[in-house]
Write a structure and sequence with these properties.
Layout: E1 4-8, H1 21-34, E2 38-41, H2 53-67, E3 73-76, H3 82-95, E4 99-103, H4 112-125, E5 130-134, H5 136-139, H6 145-151, E6 157-162, H7 167-176, E7 182-185, H8 191-196, E8 201-204, H9 211-222, H10 226-233, H11 237-242, H12 250-258, H13 275-287
Parallel strand pairs: 1-2, 1-8, 2-3, 3-4, 4-5, 5-6, 6-7, 7-8
Helix pairs in contact: 1-2, 2-3, 3-4, 4-6, 6-7, 9-10
């Protein structure tokens, strides 16, 4: 089981919106050096919704190649079309990804039975470990813990990213699933408490800019050291908040550009961070120790 700080890595882009492969490789190397426990490539933070299938598969392959077995690579392969999700998940398997992360189908608002059948269909079609991803604030559909528990009975559905920020969800998911089923927080602001309640780690936006700090905080929480975890998390609280000042990944890409790690590139319909929010994101970076 993969545990700890799993970065939901951005997809670096040039000013014209094309994927910046050189910067992507550099980011992956940096995360390995900083102690990030796994790379989650081309997830929703990686702007998967605006990459075409060829770009998506190429980015997964690049991440696997650059990680070179140093850390696990989890490929984002979710879609609101079941056939598309299957195709992307096959790409990830062919590329050598360690697992896949599949967001619940967005916009079409399937029922709980529809969610079950969608994820079961992908799992049965592609023999790779799969992690469910529940983020109703972005998808307009909420996969309930009971549905997750049904899906957890399928051998290659091995975990869930729960991004509601509701800590009682973590408790309920742990009650309904075995200890071998991975539960990841998808909400940085509550990740520390989630891990102390039994989650196995955090699939993190904040880790994009402070990978070593997020690794250390998650490690302390996994060790059950609530005092140390709180001490490590306190300077990051501003980042947890301000990296969502506008829609993710707008603020985190701006922060990485400020750090000189990527070019200021993002793909429409997302736009670059409004100047209104620059000061507060910069202040949160300073509080977290980013020069």
């Amino acid at each position: 089981m993969i545990q700890g700080s799993l970065v939901a890595i951005v997809t670096p882009m040039h000013a014209d919106g094309s994927v910046d492969e050189t910067a992507f490789r550099r980011l992956i190397d940096w995360h390995v050096e900083q102690g990030t426990d796994a790379i989650v490539a081309v997830g929703t933070t990686g702007e998967s919704a605006t990459l075409d299938e060829h770009e998506h598969c190429a980015a997964i392959a690049l991440a696997v190649e650059q990680a070179a077995g140093r850390v696990p690579v989890i490929a984002g392969t979710g879609a609101n079309s079941t056939s598309e999700a299957i195709a992307l998940t096959r790409c990830a398997l062919d590329a050598g990804a360690d697992a896949c992360l599949l967001v619940t189908p967005y916009y079409n608002k399937p029922t709980q039975e529809g969610l079950y059948r969608h994820h079961r269909a992908v799992a049965e079609a592609v023999a790779i470990p799969q992690i469910l991803y529940n983020v109703p604030g972005r998808t307009a559909v909420d996969m309930l813990p009971e549905t997750v528990a049904r899906l957890a009975e399928i051998d290659n559905i091995v975990g869930v990213k729960e991004a509601t920020g509701k800590l009682d969800r973590i408790t309920r998911l742990r009650e309904l699933t075995s200890q071998g089923f991975a539960i990841y927080s998808g909400d940085d602001a509550t990740a520390r408490e989630a891990i102390l309640l039994g989650a196995n780690g955090d699939i993190s936006v904040t880790a994009n800019v402070v990978p070593a700090a997020m690794h250390a905080m998650c490690a302390a929480a996994l060790a059950g050291d609530s005092t140390r975890a709180a001490e490590l998390d306190a300077p990051l609280a501003g980042l947890h908040r301000e990296l969502f000042a506008e829609s993710n990944p707008i603020p985190v890409k701006w922060a990485l550009a400020e750090m000189g790690l990527i070019e200021p590139g993002i793909r429409l319909p997302l736009t670059w961070l409004s100047t209104t929010y620059e000061a507060q994101v910069r202040a949160a970076m300073k509080l977290a120790g980013i020069s």
